[in-house]
Amino acid sequence: GAGVSQSPSNKVTEKGKDVELRCDPISGHTALYWYRQSLGQGLEFLIYFQGNSAPDKSGLPSDRFSAERTGGSVSTLTIQRTQQEDSAVYLCASSLGTGWYEQYFGPGTRLTVT
Amino acid sequence: GNSVTQMEGPVTLSEEAFLTINCTYTATGYPSLFWYVQYPGEGLQLLLKATKADDKGSNKGFEATYRKETTSFHLEKGSVQVSDSAVYFCALRGGGGADGLTFGKGTHLIIQP
What we know:
By secondary structure, chain A is mostly beta strands. Helices cover 0% and strands 48% of the residues of chain A.
């Protein structure tokens, strides 16, 4: 079946602009996660959604970052007023549930802030 | 909070050599432990996992045992192949932290023919 998809695959933006990154999870997966992969920080957890519960935002690095998940499916990660340090690969993952369920990762969106 | 420490590398080995990549963790409670692999040009994928102490995860000839007494989850393979060249990430989930995965920095493995 279809895996996790993300769009765009690459995004170049100017410092100060807002960007939106999209994630389509595997159908039927109730949990959805966002991570960031950068050279300096490695892989960092940002936020996760489980069903209709309030998201866990404990990993978001600043209030410029936000995410929403509509209808329990598609998710959008928004970065406002982008900075050069936001340049990274943003990964989305989904799973059947929380705990020990396997997380399936998408191919990522490479964000470059110039 | 939770943390994972792994050897960074790059680690360069000859084909058919024995591989060990060390991983230790800090967490409260009883986390689940994972090894993920990222092959060149591909996305992150689960290699193996263990959900409780003394469990052994295995896949594609790789093994790792959940050692609570030493808070470790070392990855081993008896005979590596060139196709094993990739970046390997140790990770944990749960154990008192957020449900998201906490990753180590990753170990770049290079296998030479």
